[in-house]
């Protein structure tokens, strides 16, 4: 068992993919109730709604799908089929129990996604581009599995966006790899949240693969 208690504070302090695997193995069973419901987590809802409002359609890849909260909202909005990818088999196990995903793909995004190129018409991600998790260096791996014109809706923690240079990474991708970039700032948690992160925000980056 990890020495770190599975909570937001521990998640933000992670330093490696192995750290992530360890923490989420412990957190998987309690994540929906002990974190998302308790903290009035909203980011998956904002991300799924932004994807649909932008005209996003399946097949969709949910990146860092975790226990499947974003996929569940997407599915409720009539989007499908949806595949889940995540580094944590325990989180994916919880996601598959929701009975909304077509397939679960266990993978470390830093090493690429083991599916054929141009497999998806849409890519969503909520809560995975954040402190201690993933930076802009994995965006090319996401673009590889997307078709021409595929709609992306990726949440990026606002502080992490600044700290990890997402603005310049996205500017580079705008030179021929992505189009129609829009950034929308949203609150990660709802009015029932308490604690030091209750007012944190994220950008939803909406763009299409060129
Ligand atoms: C905060 S959770 C978000 C889960 C879900 N999308 C949500 O909004 O509730 C972050 C997820 O990113 C996954 N993750 C972290 N590092 C990863 C990596 N290198 N490759 C793939 N997934 C990773 C974790 O296992 C975890 O399920």
From TrEMBL:
SUPFAM superfamilies associated with the record: S-adenosyl-L-methionine-dependent methyltransferases
Bilayer-spanning residue ranges: none
Keywords for the protein's UniProt record, in alphabetical order: Methyltransferase, Transferase
Pfam family, one: Methyltransf_25
Biological process annotations from GO: methylation
Domain Methyltransferase: 60-145
Gene3D superfamilies, per the entry: Vaccinia Virus protein VP39
MF GO annotations: methyltransferase activity
Name of this protein: Methyltransferase
